[in-house]
């Protein structure tokens, strides 16, 4: 493939990645206006949950289908489904319709990130692969910064429906570029689709993700039933995969050291990421008493350092010569260092201290995320690269879901132990006007309880970060972009 066509494919992949990455932040900005127009506030969380759920459960399936039937056709099918869902979301007339269309969006979104990542891994050989994957990873940082701004502009000057319709021109450009530049020469042969495996994986992972995402809102019956269904389905999936001629998630992939380490590390990275995204703003607003703009500054610091690190990885000679083990070790060290800064947070340090912790974690994300994906891709042959990539992306999402459940449990347990029935009073800490109306003694008590709970969360974030660092030692010595598979 010529250099010009490679760059066109990379541009298409970046457009698709941006479309998927910006979705959560742009919708979050518009959701208050959406609820004001459509009503149904009690269904608020489902607008996010159903999208994440349907996206997560389809990622491994799309990855395997891409290996069997070609990246291009599976990517196009998933993207078209995503765009149809996006268009319909803008026409929703009530919250139930919006949730249904978000589910359709998620069913398509499961194809975009893993297959775009796989395609870039296919067309860029050797050392250039790390640079190209760094650009893809950097898109997430750009989306994190631009999403809220774009969402606010569209809601203010156009309509909330535009936050969904903006995907349509981006998707059209993405598909057009792929159509022009990506050529696949594949041998056509009969494939046996693992329908049983796909069904068991969907049921098992779906039940698990639903339980984790919606745990606080589930009845006691579902808190027992959903994990039980998840365990039974996933155990059955494991047995099914050993007997399938062409399994959805080949068990022998886990016997490849770099793939196994990269997948578990993806889980750990997801946990570290949610510790910053979900809880650093809570500390800045709830404990430090700063406004949402200042809280957003901390997340912006992480997004910018993440993007810059991934770009530099592809251009610095020292990074090109380093092994994946070294790069992942540096990244894991940055995750641990950033977590340590967050653990040492106290209200007197100010928001800049919180931002510095997030910034250092962003450096770790930039190094680890790209390195572990490329290490997994370089350790398998072309025919299984889509599966290896999709499993890595899937486990990062599972890591986020598991971590948010664990972190939420830690925080809620501390609050319940320290302030008991007054736990709901913590909500007032997040609004400056209500916070200012609290008596001094009560404010100090609530601040102290919230700070202790969040420090427990940051210690847990550190544990996930330490796991990502230790897994760098499981990568084979000497494996790097100079020894990558073509």
Give the low-confidence spans. none
Distance between the first and last residues' Cα = 12 Å
Strand content: under 5%
CATH class designation of the largest domain = Mainly Alpha
- Total helices: the number is 17
How many domains? The number is 3
What is the CATH H-level superfamily of the largest domain? MFS general substrate transporter like domains
Overall form: globular
Summarize the structure.
This protein folds into three domains: 1-182, MFS general substrate transporter like domains (Growth Hormone, Chain: A); 195-245; 253-486, Growth Hormone, Chain: A. Helices cover 78% and strands 0% of the residues. It has helices at residues 3-38, 46-69, 71-89, 95-123, 126-157, 162-165, 167-181, 195-213, 220-243, 257-287, 292-313, 317-321, 324-343, 351-378, 385-419, 432-436, 440-472.
